[in-house]
Amino acid sequence: MSGKQEGVDIGSLSAQQLTAVKKQLDEEVEHLTASYTQLAAAQAKFKECLRIVQTGSSSFDDSKDILVPLTNSLYVKGKLSNPDRVIVDVGTGFYVEKDTKSATEFYDAKVKELGANIQNLEAIVQGKTNNLRVVEEVLRQKVLAQGAGPALAQA
Q1: How many Å separate Cα 127 from the centre of its chain?
Q2: Residue 102: which region, alpha, beta or left (left: phi > 0; alpha: psi -120 to 50)?
Q3: Whether the Cβ atoms of residue 48 and residue 116 lie closer than 8 Å to each other
Q4: How far apart are CA 47 and CA 43, in angstroms?
Q5: Contact, 43 vs 114, CB < 8 A?
Q6: Distance in angstroms (rounded) separating the CA atoms of residues 24 and 32
């Protein structure tokens, strides 16, 4: 199978076929928009982690108590044994101990990677949205033409 896509003249499609294409494009745009939202949320999470690592190590005191998250809503009191070392979630439940410089580099790379993915996804969503507008316009014209046909026959 070749990687070349063949175009279809949407003007030659029936109203029923155009409706099916419109429905498919609507579903694709909805799915891509949800993916965009998830990527943006992940990027915000990594930005927050980056901010905490950058500002946190200098503001932590060995004698000061901290709250350690066990779940999203359960925290326990704790003390930092070494404020210059952090545990980083590297994905799929794996954690790695890193110094703050390495953690900053890790989170910075993640933020940049997600930013690039978000930009690519924005371009794809824009293209699909433009395709959807074109299909809607052609469908509108076909429906109007079908509605005008019987009116002209009666005259």
Answers
A1: 16
A2: alpha
A3: no
A4: 6
A5: yes
A6: 12
In the block, which residue shows the tokens 């503001």?
A: 59
- Condensed to tens digits (0 to 9), the pLDDT of residues 104-126 reads 999 999 999 999 999 999 999 99
47-76 pLDDT, tens digit each: 999 998 888 766 666 667 888 888 889 999
User: One-letter amino acid identity for 150?
Assistant: P
Residues 6+ apart with CB under 8 A from 76: 67, 68, 70
**DSSP 3-state assignment of 3?**
coil
Handedness of CA 135, 137, 143, 146 (dihedral sign): negative
Alpha carbons within 13 angstroms on the beta-carbon side of residue 61 total 3
For residue 6, the tally of other CB atoms under 10 A from its CB is 5
Q: pTM score > 0.85 for this model?
A: no
- Cα(147)–Cα(150) distance, integer angstroms: 6
Measured from the Cβ of residue 14, the count of other Cβ atoms closer than 10 Å reads 11
